[in-house]
Q: What sequence folds into this?
């Protein structure tokens, strides 16, 4: 894996909209928060466009991201929001010769399609983390913001993140991969299919009924995605507990799916769709500790 150069005070962060159309007022609120952290911010010229439910055409969204990836004055790229549409850009980006690019890229949810592309096609460490017109606009939790900025400036934020529930104990160590469950599942059958190998797999989603979570996990299992893993940790899965909001149903789904494997399985990591959304440096080595109920970061995330 290649680590992107770190951010320094005064560096310019570029904002792109690779997916859904963005509300300008929310984007500006998020930009103001970013600027208070000591960075210059440049909103992409096409970031506020609208084409149906997208932030402009596929070609426009891809072109803006490629331009910022290649622009040496842009030191990091943050997604304005997620929604839907990032996956439509993947083949456009893949044929543009971006393999030699190494730059901080931050996003989550629908942007999982881009995170996975960068990890698998370019070997670039990237960051599953908050979006500008989302968490930044609504006011990020101080500890999650400090964690993100630590990762991007010195390569280290918190030493570890806790999770409340161990479904199978033990230790697991490997490269951290993953993201939004529904987006990763949607890559199967494409030239850019998710292929984690011997990794620690992080999965999260929002608003999916337990039976839909079961369906997606079953599809990934039948595709062989879980065979070589070193461990699995799920996020808080907000809104995924069904109409009765009974967590035991969802936990039983996860336990059943991973019953055939010996590696550790955990639930409740505070990353993704949740109140804090702690950033995860995908492509770096981590360790799951089922006894301490923690995900420990073992290396720096930037060069």
A:
């Amino acid at each position: 894996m290649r680590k992107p150069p770190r951010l320094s005070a005064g560096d310019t962060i570029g904002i792109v909209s690779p997916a859904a159309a963005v509300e300008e007022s929310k984007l500006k609120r998020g930009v103001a928060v970013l600027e208070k952290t000591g960075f210059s911010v440049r909103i992409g010229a096409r970031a506020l466009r609208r084409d149906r439910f997208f932030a402009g055409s596929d070609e426009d969204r891809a072109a803006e991201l490629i331009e910022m990836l290649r622009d040496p004055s842009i030191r990091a790229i943050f997604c304005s929001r997620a929604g839907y549409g990032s996956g439509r850009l993947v083949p456009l980006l893949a044929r543009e010769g971006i393999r030699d690019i190494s730059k901080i890229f931050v996003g989550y949810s629908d942007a999982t399609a881009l995170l996975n592309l960068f990890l698998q096609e370019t070997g670039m460490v990237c960051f599953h983390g908050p979006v500008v017109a989302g968490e930044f606009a609504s006011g990020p939790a101080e500890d999650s913001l400090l964690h993100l900025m630590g990762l991007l400036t010195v390569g280290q934020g918190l030493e570890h993140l806790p999770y409340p529930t161990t479904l199978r104990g033990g230790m697991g160590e490997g490269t951290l991969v993953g993201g939004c469950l529904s987006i990763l599942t949607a890559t199967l059958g494409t030239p850019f299919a998710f292929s984690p190998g011997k990794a620690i797999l992080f999965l999260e989603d929002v608003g999916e009924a337990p039976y839909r979570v079961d369906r997606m996990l079953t599809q990934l299992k039948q595709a062989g995605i879980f065979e070589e893993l070193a461990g699995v940790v799920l996020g808080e899965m907000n809104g995924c507990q069904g109409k009765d909001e009974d967590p035991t149903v969802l936990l039983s789904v996860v336990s059943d799916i991973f019953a055939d494997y010996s590696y550790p399985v955990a639930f409740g990591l505070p990353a993704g769709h949740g109140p804090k959304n702690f950033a995860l440096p995908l492509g770096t080595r981590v360790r799951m500790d089922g006894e301490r109920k923690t995900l420990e970061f073992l290396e720096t995330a930037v060069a």
